[in-house]
Amino acid sequence: MIDAVGLHKVYRLKKRRVTALNGVDLRVEPGEIYGVVGQSGAGKSTLLRTVNLLERPDAGTVRVAGEDLTSLRGAGLRSARRRIGMVHQHFALLASRTVAGNVAFPLEVAGAGRAERRARVGELLELVGLADKARAHPSQLSGGQKQRVGIARALASRPDVLLSDEATSALDPATTDSILALLRRLRDELGLTILLITHEMDVIKRICDSAAIMEEGEFRESGRVLDLIGTPGSLLARSLFPLPDRGGPDTVVVTYPRSYDEPLMSELTRRFDVDVNILGGGVEQVAGQSVGRLIVDLRGARRAQALSYLAEHGLLVEEAGQ
Amino acid sequence: MTSHAMTPALTLADASAEQGPLGAVASFLRAWPEMWPSLWLATLDTVYMVWWASVFSVLVGLPLGVLLVATDRGGLVPAPFVRALLSAIVNIGRSLPFIVLMVAVLALTRFLVGTTLGPTAAIVPLSIGAIPFFARLVETALREVDRGVVEAAHAMGTRRITIVGKVMLPEALPGLIAGLVMTVVTLISYSAMAGAIGGGGLGDLAIREGYQRFNDHYLWATVILLIVVVQVVQSLGDLWVRRLARR
C-alpha cells in the first residue's frame, strides 16, 4: 500500500547539514499497522511527512496505492493527499470551529455539499464515540476526545492510508490504551493501512504487525514484529524485553517468539539433567501472541544438547556470556 | 436678623464659589447646551473620518499583513525579496510621525479628494497612517496561529488560498479584532491631529475654539467626548474578543 524506495533528505541549517533520511526503504502492506520507533531526531517524523509529501525527499520515490506521489505537484498532489489521512501529536484542531466543523473541514475542502457533509460528520462522530460532542469546541474536550476528533477528521475523506504522528504521545496511559484500541478497531473494520511513528515501545508491542527501528536517518531493522523478535541479535527484542545484564559463561537468553503450551523448562531439567536458574525475563502480549524472553543460567554435562532441544522447538537461544 | 438679611450673603457665597473648582464645573455645565450643536457635529465628523479610515485600513492592511506572513521563510509562498520590500514600505509608513505624514501626502490628498480641507480630505492621510500600523498587527496575530494546524490543512489537500481564508484568518480572529480596536483608537487620536490642519472633527474644534480663542469650555468638552468615544470603541471591541475567546 505504501512503497517508498531510497529516501534521502538533508536539511541545511545555518552552519551544518542534518541528514534526516539516509536511504530509507519502507514497504507497508495493505491492512497492516506499521510502526516506526526511534529517538527524537532519528528522522521518523521526516519519514512520515515524506509519505504525504509534506516534505519532498531529495532523492527516492514514494508510492501510495500504486500512485507515484513524488511525481505529483499542485492539484494532483492535493487530491492524492485527500486519500491519505493524518493524525497529529498535538491534535491540530481548529479552535475556531466546533467538533462537527473540524470533522467537516476536509469535506469542505473536497467540495462536498452541505447535506453530504452533515451525514458524513454524524457517521464519523458515531464511529469514534463522540456523537454527543458535535457542538462542543475543542477547548472543552479532554486530550483523548481531541484525538478522537482528529481521527474522525482524518477519516472523513475515506482514505486508504492513515498516518499517525505520535498520536498518543501527549496522552496519559489509560487514554493511550483507548486510542490504540480505536486505531486497531478502525483497521479491522475499515481495512485501513496505518503507518505510525512513536518513541514508545509500548505502542509497537500493542498494535503493530510490522515495525522498524530508526536511528540517524536509517532503518536499523525492519519487518514483521514476531519475525524480528525471533531474529538473533534483534534490537526490537532487546528493547521490548529489557533483561538484566549479568551474563556468566553459562548464561543464555531464550526467546519464545510465540505462545507455548508445553512446560519446556521443566522438560529440560528432567531430560538432560541440567540446572536452570532464571535471572530475569518477561512475557508480553505482542501482536496478539504471548511472547517471552528469559535470561537463564544453564549448567550441566548435557548443556549443548539441552540448548539444541530448545532450538528444535522453535525457541531462539543466544549465548549471553560472549 | 431676619431671613431677608441672609439673601445677599448667599448670593455672595455663590459668586465666590464661581471662582473655585465647583464654580468652574457649574459654568461649564451652563455653557454645555450652547456648545452642544457644534460639539455634536464635530463628533459626527470624527466618527465619519475614523470609520472610513478604518474601512480602508482593513481593506489594504489585512491583505498586506497576510502577505507579510505568507511571503516569509516557511510561509505559504516564500518570497524573501517581496517580503523585504513590503516590510520596508510598512516600516517607512510606521516611522513617520503622523503630523509629518499628513503634510507629506497633501499633494496626494488634493489629487484624490480635490481639496486638503475637511473631514473627507483627512481620510486620505488617516488611512495611509493606519494601514501599515494595522498590517503589522495582522502579521503578529497571524503568527500566533498554530503551525501544526496549517500543516494539518496542507495534509488534507487544502489550497493555499483556502488555508488563508478557512484556517489562518478564522484562527487568528480574536487577535485581528484586538488589532482592529487598537487601530481605531489610534485613528481617533490621529483624527484629532488631523484637525490641526483643517481636517475637522473634535480635534479641529479643540484647536479653533479651545486653543486659538481661549475657550476652555470647548477644550474640556472635546476631551470628554474623545474619552467617551475611545471608551465605547474599546469596550465593544473587548466584548467581541471575549465572546470569541470563550469558544
CATH homologous superfamily title of chain B = MetI-like
Q: How does the helix and strand content of chain B classify structurally?
A: mainly alpha
SSE string of chain A, helix = H, strand = E?
EEEHEEHEHHHEHEHEEHHEHEEHE
Given as residue ranges, the uncertain stretches of chain A (5+ residues, pLDDT < 50) are none
Q: How does CATH name the architecture of chain B?
A: Orthogonal Bundle
What general outline of chain B do the C-alpha atoms trace?
Answer: elongated
Largest interface: A-B, 28 and 19 residues
- Structural class given helices, strands, pairing of chain A? alpha/beta
Question: How would you characterize this protein structure?
Answer:
The complex is a heterodimer of chains A (322) and B (247). Chain A has helices spanning 44-51, 74-81, 99-109, 114-127, 143-155, 173-190, 201-207, 225-229, 235-240, 264-272, 303-312, and strands spanning 2-12, 17-28, 33-37, 59-64, 67-68, 84-87, 161-165, 193-198, 210-215, 218-224, 251-256, 275-286, 289-299, 316-319. Chain A is α/β, with parallel strands linked by helices and 322 residues long. A six-stranded mixed β-sheet of chain A has the order 6-7-8-3-9-10, sandwiched between helices. A four-stranded antiparallel β-sheet of chain A has the order 2-1-4-5, covered by helices on one side. In chain A, helix 3 packs parallel to helix 5 and helix 4 packs across helix 5 (143-155). The longest helix of chain A is centred in the middle third of the chain and has 18 residues, at 173-190. In chain B, helix 2 (21-70) runs antiparallel to helix 9 (201-212), helix 8 (160-194) packs antiparallel against helix 10 and helix 9 (201-212) runs antiparallel to helix 10. Chain B has ten helices and no strands. Chain B has a single domain (36-245), classed as MetI-like fold (Orthogonal Bundle). The interface between A and B is medium-sized, with 28 and 19 residues.
